[in-house]
Every structure is written in structure tokens, then in C-alpha cells.
């Protein structure tokens, strides 16, 4: 029979022109691979090859029966791509994924160690081994590409837009060359170290705390980011569907053991004890999540690219430059524990969140020296939670809201090689909001869940003397998820459990440059499925529609990209671009 193709309706890859080099990085079969990653020597392209863009392609084949598995790509000790696998459902299945890793192009310039981690188990029932083919494509492209695959846009000579990734825009240096930069970072520092080469650099929160020293950066650094990979696993995979602890047992006698610690998760980042950023984890549904037929043959958005959360740390540059020891701490909160009005022991979170992080920094060769000072840290927290489960009538209602804001202001003083000085005020602001509504009836057989994580983050450069805004970059993210689950009555003696599910996801991302909405992405998914868990083999039906639209407008070129696909019961009905 033909190989069954499984696809993701994701961001289009840019055309960087012809490759200047390409090579195979890994061909490997992951059978009983739990705790045994593939470790190979990475050999950089020859020294006469110049490149500034790197794209990695991943082909995966799997047959038989197997769960979805998380996979990680590490280079030189840094995690650079996190992905997940398809479920074969008894058929030889194939998926293709690709990732622009140009931000990490520096790591690809030298010989080092490459690790691909895919923890898999083979049992008499779980027979699927994953065959992986990993390849690297290298390009040497000129600045000025837009997000969408088209001819390079004309750019204002005073500004340099290098937008190659919805979340990886470059600060436009409106009046100078200090803050302009290219996509590839000049420095990459992994924050998770491992003493054993075969052990991937991961922290499992809450089993272990995540605190690391801040690396020292060169004084010509103009931009620094935290790239933070976090994935809810096991008890935390469906965190957005969890209830407050007091309600976990209310429907246990009716076969529904509800997850606890509440339906809100926020990643908080601290430096030297000050909270500097808050971010919502992306609610990813893996290919076996909720109901496997929903995601066959079109996976849920983000399943092949579990994007890193990006936190702008440019306002913290004075800490990266000073002689003191400074640290950074990553914490994942359930929001409710941050409510000052609540009394009693904290609820915490479940096991576990799989976490790693890198500091990435950009430098400017025209700068001789930089100094600065942090002016102010400012943050606020608002939490409210309400739950109601009257006895005997089989109903539960719950509402949780959370809002975190953080702002850091600094002054940065740069001296160029030609003696010119620039003094700036740098302002980083971020906001993470979540709203969750859970309504359960029929003793848990009927469940409706609405989860709406929203975030904003911005970076502004202001004139040091007049406080006039010179340039701004703003992002907003909204990941709305609605899940409706109806469990059918058990048929006595059958051992089977059947349920119907409808899931809707609405993703909205906007990028603003100097007050103009330059990029807007909307992704809509709507899926319906019926699934039966049976001792004779699980089975079910599913259909899902996926619609992705990206629009660009001033100060970029006007352009639109749309992709619309429908999958029904394992078959792609249409996939139109």
C-alpha cells in the first residue's frame, strides 16, 4: 500500500535562492531508544563556503502502532528545535517538517556534537520504530527578505527589516545603525548544562528548579534574547483542561479523574529575584492528543514545531556587562498560587514541564564599548478564581483569570569606533493574560472548556534626553482553544468507552513596527471526532479543517498568503495555497 502522508498547515518557508551547501546530518532508527539519544559528530561546511541562513529538514517514517513522541535537536549543547512525531495508526506513515534555524547559524560554523533525542518504547503492543532523516540546507542570502516567499522588498536605507520568522523580527534602527542586525545571532549560550555527554540538557520542572548564571556578554552587544523551550508532559499535557484541586475527585465515582492544579500556567522569568517577564506556554495538542483521528492526516498547529518562547532581555544588558554574578530563574506557576487573597498551602503544578533555554545575543562591529544602568523594574499580578460543584446534581462550573505585567527600563551608552556616542533609554514590556471557563455536566460525561491565553510584548528605544520614542516593536499573541467532549454511556461487559469531541483553535499573532501593524497571522482549526477505546483495538472517525492566513502591510510590502486544507478520516480532501 502507498505510504500515508501526514502534514501540518504551517508557515511557508522562504526562498533564499540556491543552496550554497547541503548535507545529511543523521539517518537513524529509534526503536527502544528511551534514554538513548542519537549522538553524532557534526562537520561544518568547508571554510570556503559562506552562509548566513540554515534550514533543517526532517523526514519521519513509522509503521505499526505507536504513541506520539517528543523529539529534540541539540547542537553544541543548545536545544535548537523541538518537535513531535505522528502516530502511524497501523499504516506505514510519513511526515515532513522543516525549520529555519538561521538564528543559530553561528553554531553551524564549527565542528561540534549533534544530538537528536527521541525517547521511544517498543512493546508487544507498541510496535512502531521511528526512522529519521535529518538534513541541513545552507544559504547565503541578502538582507531585506519579508516573511512571505516573494521577491526581496525594497527597504528604506535607514531601516533594515529582516523578517524571516513571525516571532523573530529585527529591531529597526530608525536613526542610526546601532540596533540594526542580521538574523543570525553572534553568541549562543545554553543555560542548561549536563555533566554526562549522552544526557540531553533538560530540566524537568517542578522536580528541579531552573536557575542559571547569566553569561558575560561583550560590550558591543546591542540585543539579547532568552529562547525558552517548555512543554507540558504527562499530568501537564492538557493543563488547560485541569480543575482546581478541590474538584479533582468530584466525578471519580463516575469514571472521570480530573487533572488538578487549575487550568492556568504561566512561565515567569526572574533575574536576581526580580520578575522581569511572563509568558504563556503555547497550548500544543500532539498527534495522539484528545482524539487521534482529529489529527490524521493534518496535525494540529505547532505539533511539528514546538516554538521557543522568546523573551527580550535587551533592557538587562547592564547585568550582562557588570562584574557581579547575576542569575536568571525560570518558574512555571499555576497562577492561583500567586493570588494574595488565598490562604493555605500552595497547589503547585503537576509533573512535569520539560524545559531548556538559550541566551542569544547580537553584536555590532561598529561599537567600541557599551555601558548602562537599570533604572526600574515594575510588575503587577491580578488573579481571580471561582468554582462551584453542588453535590448530587453532577455539575461543575469554574472560572479562572490571570494577568501578569512586567516592565524594565534601562539606559544604554554606546561609543562607536569613530568616537561617536549614543545614549538611549531601552524599555521592555510584556503582559501575559489567561482566561479559562470550564463547564461540566452529567457527572463529567459532558465537558466544555474554553481557554484563552493572550500575551503582548514590546521593546522601545527612546531618546535619552527628550524621552522621544525612536522605534518600537510590538507583538501580540492570542491562542483561543475550545474543547467539547461528550462521553457515551458504557455498554455493560464490552470494556469499551466511546466519546465524541469537537475542538476549535483560533490563533492570532500581530507584529507592529513603529505603530503600524506590519504582519498579521490568523490560524483557525476546527475538528470533530468520535473515538472508541476498546480492548480489541481503538478506533474512530475524525475530520478537521485548517485555514492559515498571513498578511503583510506597511512598512513592509503588501502581500497575502493563504492555505486552506481539509482532512477527513485519514484522507486529505483538499489542500489549497
TrEMBL record:
<dbReference type="Pfam" id="PF12222">
    <property type="entry name" value="PNGaseA"/>
</dbReference>
<dbReference type="InterPro" id="IPR056948">
    <property type="entry name" value="PNGaseA_N"/>
</dbReference>
<dbReference type="InterPro" id="IPR021102">
    <property type="entry name" value="PNGase_A"/>
</dbReference>
<feature type="domain" description="Peptide N-acetyl-beta-D-glucosaminyl asparaginase amidase A N-terminal">
    <location>
        <begin position="21"/>
        <end position="377"/>
    </location>
</feature>
<protein>
    <recommendedName>
        <fullName>Peptide N-acetyl-beta-D-glucosaminyl asparaginase amidase A N-terminal domain-containing protein</fullName>
    </recommendedName>
</protein>
Amino acid at each position: 500500500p502507498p505510504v500515508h502522508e501526514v502534514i501540518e498547515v504551517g508557515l511557508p518557508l522562504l526562498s533564499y535562492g540556491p543552496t550554497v551547501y547541503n548535507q545529511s546530518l543523521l539517518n537513524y532508527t529509534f526503536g527502544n531508544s528511551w534514554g538513548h539519544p542519537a549522538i553524532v559528530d557534526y562537520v561544518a561546511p568547508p571554510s570556503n563556503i559562506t552562509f548566513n541562513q540554515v534550514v533543517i529538514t526532517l523526514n519521519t517514517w513509522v509503521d505499526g502502532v505507536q504513541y506520539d513522541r517528543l523529539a529534540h535537536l541539540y547542537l553544541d549543547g543548545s536545544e535548537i528545535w523541538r518537535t513531535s512525531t505522528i502516530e502511524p495508526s497501523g499504516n506505514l506513515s510519513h511526515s515532513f517538517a522543516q525549520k529555519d534555524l538561521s538564528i543559530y547559524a553561528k553554531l553551524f560554523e564549527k565542528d561540534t556534537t549533534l544530538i537528536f533525542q527521541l525517547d521511544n518504547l517498543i512493546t508487544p503492543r507498541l510496535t512502531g520504530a521511528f526512522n529519521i532523516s535529518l538534513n541541513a540546507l545552507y544559504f547565503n542570502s541578502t538582507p531585506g527578505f519579508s516573511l512571505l516567499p516573494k521577491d526581496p522588498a525594497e527597504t528604506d536605507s535607514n531601516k533594515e527589516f529582516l523578517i524571516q520568522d513571525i516571532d523573530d523580527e529585527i529591531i529597526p534602527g530608525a536613526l542610526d545603525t546601532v540596533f540594526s542586525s542580521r538574523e543570525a545571532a553572534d553568541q549562543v549560550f545554553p543555560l542548561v548544562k549536563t555533566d554526562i555527554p549522552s544526557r540531553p540538557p533538560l530540566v524537568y520542572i517542578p522536580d528541579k528548579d531552573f536557575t542559571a548564571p547569566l553569561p558575560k556578554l561583550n560590550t558591543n552587544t546591542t540585543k539579547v534574547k532568552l529562547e525558552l523551550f517548555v512543554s507540558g508532559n504527562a499530568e501537564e499535557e492538557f493543563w488547560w483542561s485541569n480543575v482546581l484541586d478541590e474538584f479533582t475527585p468530584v466525578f471519580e465515582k463516575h469514571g472521570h479523574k480530573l487533572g488538578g492544579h487549575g487550568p492556568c500556567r504561566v512561565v515567569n522569568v526572574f533575574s536576581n529575584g526580580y520578575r522581569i517577564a511572563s509568558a504563556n506556554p503555547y497550548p500544543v495538542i500532539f498527534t495522539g492528543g484528545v482524539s487521534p483521528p482529529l489529527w490524521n492526516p493534518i496535525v494540529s498547529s505547532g505539533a511539528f514545531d514546538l516554538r521557543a518562547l522568546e523573551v527580550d532581555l535587551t533592557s538587562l544588558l547592564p547585568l550582562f556587562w557588570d562584574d557581579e554574578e547575576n542569575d536568571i530563574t525560570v518558574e512555571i506557576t499555576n497562577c492561583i498560587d500567586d493570588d494574595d487573597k488565598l490562604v493555605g498551602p500552595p497547589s503547585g503544578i503537576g509533573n512535569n514541564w520539560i524545559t531548556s533555554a538559550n541566551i542569544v545575543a547580537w553584536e555590532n562591529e561598529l561599537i567600541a564599548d557599551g555601558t548602562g544602568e537599570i533604572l526600574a523594574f515594575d510588575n503587577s499580578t491580578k488573579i481571580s478564581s471561582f468554582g462551584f460543584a453542588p453535590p448530587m446534581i453532577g455539575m461543575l462550573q469554574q472560572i479562572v483569570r490571570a494577568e501578569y505585567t512586567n516592565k524594565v527600563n534601562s539606559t544604554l551608552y554606546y561609543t562607536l569606533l569613530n568616537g561617536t556616542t549614543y545614549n538611549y533609554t531601552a524599555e521592555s514590556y510584556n503582559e501575559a493574560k489567561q482566561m479559562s471557563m470550564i463547564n461540566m455536566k452529567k457527572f463529567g460525561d459532558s465537558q466544555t472548556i474554553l481557554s484563552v491565553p493572550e500575551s503582548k510584548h514590546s521593546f522601545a528605544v527612546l531618546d535619552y534626553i527628550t524621552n522621544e520614542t525612536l522605534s518600537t516593536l510590538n507583538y501580540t499573541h492570542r491562542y483561543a482553544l475550545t474543547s467539547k467532549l461528550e462521553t457515551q454511556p458504557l455498554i455493560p461487559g464490552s470494556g469499551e468507552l466511546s466519546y465524541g469531541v469537537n475542538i476549535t483553535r483560533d490563533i492570532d499573532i500581530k507584529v507592529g513596527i513603529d505603530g503600524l501593524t506590519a504582519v498579521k497571522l490568523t490560524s483557525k482549526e476546527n475538528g470533530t471526532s468520535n473515538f472508541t477505546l476498546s480492548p480489541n483495538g481503538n478506533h474512530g472517525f475524525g475530520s478537521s479543517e485548517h485555514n492559515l492566513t498571513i498578511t503583510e502591510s506597511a512598512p513592509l510590502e503588501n502581500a497575502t498568503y493563504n492555505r486552506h486544507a481539509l482532512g477527513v478520516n485519514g484522507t486529505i480532501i483538499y489542500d489549497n495555497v
